[in-house]
Specification:
The protein has 178 residues and is an all-alpha fold. The protein contains seven helices and no strands.
């Protein structure tokens, strides 16, 4: 068999698996009818009246598709500080990543040159680098939020600190091996 035939089969199988998943999801989230009584407070919480069929707490594919479409139709709306479109949020996120990465490059590349050119500096700083590079971003985030008190600046700091170590180590290794 040629490659085209294998790709066609794989694409068809992927489409069938997607349809199967969506079908199972749809059936699993259909409203339940029956003699079960539902607590009125819980019914209010999930958006149903206690008298009607109990609706699943998980939305179905139709509801999710409608919500995704509503977000994609107007991606740049701005209704205040906590209600922005997905396009604006994506832009802010990319700006934070770019800022953190550029700051890391501004620090790591010159420091990597210095560490790579000086064996004494390499031996002095290597233990600190080896310990700090292993700290997870999940550990840096609460520390950044506690000390910096701003989520945007904290996000840039976490991106900076996580980008710093690979750039620093690779620059020092590259300069040291030349």
């Amino acid at each position: 068999m040629n490659a085209f035939s294998w790709n066609w089969r794989a694409s068809l199988l992927a489409a069938l698996l997607l349809l199967l998943f969506l079908g199972i999801w749809h059936v699993a989230t259909l409203p339940r009818t029956g003699g079960q009584s539902v607590d009125p407070e819980y019914a209010k919480l999930v958006g149903e009246s206690a008298a009607s069929g109990q609706k699943s707490a998980l939305p179905g594919p139709k509801e999710v598709g409608a919500k995704v479409w509503s977000h994609l139709v107007d991606p740049f709306y701005d209704n205040g500080p906590n209600d922005k479109g997905i396009g604006l949020q994506l832009g802010y996120s990319l700006a934070r990543v770019l800022a953190g990465y550029l700051l890391a490059a501004l620090v790591a590349i010159p420091a990597g040159f210095l560490i790579g050119m000086s064996p004494t500096l390499y031996k002095a700083l290597d233990p600190f680098i080896q310990v700090l590079k292993r700290v997870s971003p999940l550990a840096w985030m609460p520390l950044a939020l506690f000390t910096l008190k701003d989520s945007g600046v904290s996000a840039v700091f976490v991106i900076f600190i996580c980008s710093l170590w690979p750039m620093l180590i690779n620059t020092a290794f590259g300069v040291g091996s030349v």
